[in-house]
Amino acid sequence: MMRRIASLALAATTLSACGLVVQRQAPDPAVEETRVAEDDAEAGVIELARFFGDCDDATQGVTDVSQATSECEVIQILTNAFNADNAVGIDVEQLGGAQFASYYDTLNATYAGGSPPDVAVMHASNLPDYASRDLLVQLDDVMGSVDVDPSIWTEPAREAVTYDGATYGVPFDVHANLWHVNVDLMDEAGLVDADGIPILPSSPEEFLAQAAQLEEATGAQYFATDANQFALDVMVFISLLYQNGGDIVSEDGSHATLDTPEAREVLEFMNTLFDEGIADPQQDYTAAQSAFLSGDVAVLHNGTWVVNQYAAEAPFEYRTMPFPGIFGEPANWSNSHVWVIPVQSDPGDYKEALEFVGYLDDHVADWAVGTGHLPPKEPVLASDEFASAPQRSNFASATVEQAQLLPSVGNWQPIEDIIKREIEATWLTGKSVDQALQDAQREIDIRLDATNG
Amino acid sequence: MTTATAPAYDGMSRQRIRQLLIAGLIGVVAVLWITPMVWMVSLSLSDNEALQTNTTSLVPINPTLSNFGDVFSLGLTPRWLINSVIVTLVTTIATLVLSAMAGYAIARLDFRGKRFVIPFVLAGLMVPKEAMFIPQFLMFAEVGAHNTYSALALPRIAAPLGVFIMMQFFQAIPREVEEAASIDGASRWQTFTRVLLPMSVPALTALGIFTFVLTWNDYLWPLVSATQPEMFTITTGLASLQGNFAQATALGSLMARGVVAAIPLLVLFVIFQKRLIRGIALGSGGK
Amino acid sequence: MSVDSTVGTVPRQAASTDGAGWLARHRKDVEAWGFLAPFMIVYAIFLIYPVIQALLMSVFNWDLLDPGQRTFVGLDNYARMFGAQGLTWDATHLLGWRIAGGVVLVGVAVAAARDLVARRTATILAAATVVVFGVLLGLHPGPDGAWSDAGFWGAFGNTIVFVLMSTPVIVGVSLLLALVLSGAGRVAAILRAVFFAPYVLSVAVLTLIWGFLLNPDLGLIGRALAAVGLEPISWLTDPSLAMPAIVLTTLWWTMGFNLVLFIAGLQDVDPTLYEAAALDGANAVQTFFHVTVPGIRRTIVLVTVLQVIASFQIFGQVFIMTRGGPGGATRVLIQHIYESGFREFRLGYAAALSVFLFVVMLGASAAQFRLLNEDDS
After folding, report:
1. Which residues of chain C have pLDDT under 70?
2. Which domain holds residue A123?
3. Phi (first) and psi of residue A92, to 5 degrees
């Protein structure tokens, strides 16, 4: 009996070992392209994966995008309109409800489970992980068929979708972080110029001085940002690092460059802000936002996605301003939302997916006007429609010019997690700046080795 | 006489006071305990707009049933509920059947390899189910079986604890009962199904309820296996609605969905409370 | 008689190898395995096989999404988990935990002296305590060195902290409440329902409620504190309060399960024992320790072991409420496994981590069973 069981166990083990060695065939993206060009789009259902939240309550049955008041509503209404109007009869089903923070985990699970969505949104910073593994359809030869014109893309937008010389996505926007300013408070503190435009600091010393000035005059908190929930604090760190002449990884992407004097200066400065009470390390995203909207905070550091919302809701005079150059020439963190077409393990048609992506590309203006994100096309950026949207003239072109995309390396998600954990440790648990940056550098190097090695 | 009665009076009131204190303490704790759920219900009945300014009222603000209406008309919540019901029912019934049969065999029957089987099964108690999701994920991925009801139910059916409970229960039943049945001409299977199973209803109820609750609330496995929203269970589906930037604007609806997710189980518990406790007592094997 | 009539035929049947004879002789086994088989099959496939597969995967570098990147690497994953550069040893590293180890040692000695544990168990325990607290805890990377996976040690430490914090609290509270609520009567039944009710909530609903409860601006607790004039506490963003907040949430959620188990156990205690104790003039405390505890010993063991097993595997509420924050203060092992696999694509490493967790839990459960079942006659 025992012997029989032992031999069964041995057999089971051998079988599973064989299973480990069998490789699943990855479809060749180049082959898929020719198929796409030949077929016509057919009616059917395609699956869309996106974050941006859930807002069915507000958008059920709505197809007029001018009614949208948030990111979620714009994209949902655009999708509704596509479903209602497209000549082919394609129905887009949203693989929705993905939590923003675990979107990529879920996407990875769908890939691993063999059923990725037909169309997905992605950040430019995460694209390399999928492109390098041949998990995205190359679009160079086929995007013309749905009238996507790469020649009118802005520089950051083009960079966002390019990997290893090929195009793997269609950019929807370029987004960046901004300073959302309560002009009334600045005025009270005497920090506005002759035209009533708030004066922003251009050096660390000025920052501290102006903060003190404002707090004395108004009793309000000068600066607020989400310091522990989403990666807003990472955006501040990276922006300042860029300004200070530093970067996260080396030019060739082989090692991190965080254990450097530039990074140390920046991180120490951020800690000074928290230590001196200029910003509150315990404010999360919602808390920082409500403090700003209730008029208790002069400057809220947040992104392009809330411009319309604040313009509509702020009970005080509100102005969106580009991230000022504190450590030198202005520069800021930026990323991009791109639409990608995952490679399917069951070789099928990508024509329907392409139709939808082409449609979204046609509507980048709606997205830019309805949210606050920067359009990826030069003509739209320069258009009147865009310029007349709330606040755009105050920050848009300046931000596009000074925007610097995140490095194009694999494993960006864990790398961002590491940076976030280490810098937050300095102001939440008192870890030393030197130690935090050293640890971050080492951990990131391990991740970079994994993708390069 | 007075001295004799005085101590008796004192002693009784001291005990009474202690009893009252304990009762009062329990009462306070119970009120605190139930408050979060009362709050959830109150929020679910409140108007979303009003909740943007005030979220701490225990009484519904601008009471409305529209949030519940939204739950069933928008989004996939009804579909998620159905998924949860199917998966949980299948898992529970299968677990009960398998555990009862295996528990009976181990408790009552003599067979070759028995000495090996018992520790083998008990060892399974210590396998961290949650931690084993990686190989289980791969197993189903390689046959392309994710996003199915089978994938959600199968890994949860084998429950060593269930076998353990049923085993202890069956061990406590006197052998005479079985012997009487076999004298009457019943086969082993008939004895099992017609005599022993009905007797084990309390233990089965207890096991059934715990399996039901555990399966209903399973989070990590459905998270990685059911990635398409139509296959979400109510647990992962609800969790997916939180944590978005836009969470703060529809608090009432979110809470309403939570209430809807909780009601089936609450009803189940209220109905089965007594049998649940009795079943556990018997299933713990007494002494 | 039937026996006689088969006596003569038995040798002939034993000699033959036809199927009917084999079935007749092995009927008992076949029957028993018939009952056992369905469970064993599912069990072997879905519980045992994954453990074997986890072991196998753990010696591979297994990319989640790229079939081309799956290579055999031997013990590399384990080296990465436990390894460090520049390892040194210190007598005072993690002093707090060392002192706790000393306390444990004293406790073991006292228990041995009072015959609460057998000598052999006590010696084993003492040796284990010395090895872990005295020797192993002193290992740490020196000033220029570092752990290969610092996140792992953080997650492991947080998990241990959670287990140590939550087990006594949840078991203790449920036992105390069970003592009071084990009686008959409608009031007791209602109160039992009140305390059990949270158990039926799913983790999504739980985190919804408690995430808002604990919110300093929007939550009830904050409002209550403000009413008494205290500053609202930001539980989930304060590194030292986040884990206690999670313990509190878990207590509210799962105590009902233990409560029901304890009540069932208490109802089994022979009431005459209580009468005897009362006659002997025992007070409440004495009765508790000399009648109740021995009477529900088995239940206490069961509840504690189940609680420890569950605590080691905590994931849902932490992941949703804090995502391991603030600053990694609540990041637990399962989250590390999940993220290594699904965020970093390192499935082989995730498998190795799972194997580690399994071994730890096996050890903890076995130790508990052994220890707490000592006096079971």
Report:
1. 1-20, 25, 372-377
2. 29-174+336-405
3. -95, 125
> Is there a single domain that holds both residue C249 and residue C142?
no
Domain contains A14: no
C-beta atoms of C358 and B105 within 8 A? no
Domain that holds residue B83: 67-283
Q: What average pLDDT does chain A have?
A: 84
Domain total in chain A: 2
User: Is the separation of the CB atoms in A115 and B146 below 8 Å?
Assistant: yes
For residue B78 the two structure tokens come to 């009804």
Min CA distance, A166 vs chain B (Å)?
29
| CA–CA dist B201, B279 (Å, integer) | 8
Interface of C with B in 120-159 (CB under 8 A): none
Residues C140 and C170 in one domain: no
Q: How confident is the model at residue B242 (pLDDT cuts 50, 70, 90)?
A: low
How does strand A332-335 pair with strand C84-89? unpaired
| pLDDT category of residue A363 using cuts at 50, 70 and 90 | very high
Cβ-defined contact of C328 to A425 (cutoff 8 Å): yes
Whether B100 has a pLDDT exceeding 60, the answer reads yes
pLDDT digits (tens, 9 = 90+) for A19-41: 333 333 334 444 333 333 334 66
Please indicate, yes or no, if residue A58 is contained in any of the structural domains: yes
Instruction: Place A260 in a pLDDT band, splitting at 50, 70 and 90.
Output: very high
DSSP C192-228: HHHHHGGGGS-HHHHHHHHHHHT-TTTSHHHHHHHHT
The string of pLDDT tens digits covering residues C230-284 is 877 888 888 889 999 999 999 999 998 899 888 888 877 778 888 888 888 777 7
The pLDDT of residue C8 is 40
What are the two backbone dihedrals, phi and then psi, of residue C72, each rounded to the nearest 5 degrees?
A: -75, 130
Separation between Cα atoms, residue A172 and residue C301, nearest integer Å = 59
Closest among A348, A234, A355 to A301, alpha carbons compared:
A234
What is the distance between the alpha carbons of residues C275 and A427, in angstroms, rounded to a whole number? 60
Q: Which residues contact B107 (CB under 8 A, 6 or more apart)?
A: B166, B167, B168, B169, B170, B171
Task: Burial-class residue C377 by CB neighbours within 10 Å (0-12, 13-18, 19+).
Answer: exposed
Answer whether B245's CB lies under 8 Å from A53's CB: yes
Are B245 and A305 within 8 A, CB to CB?
yes
C contact test, residue of A421, A432, A447 with most C CBs within 10 A? A421
The token duo for B217 is 């609330």
Cα separation, C50 vs A13, whole angstroms: 11
Inspect the interface and report whether the beta carbons of A115 and B228 lie closer than 8 Å: yes
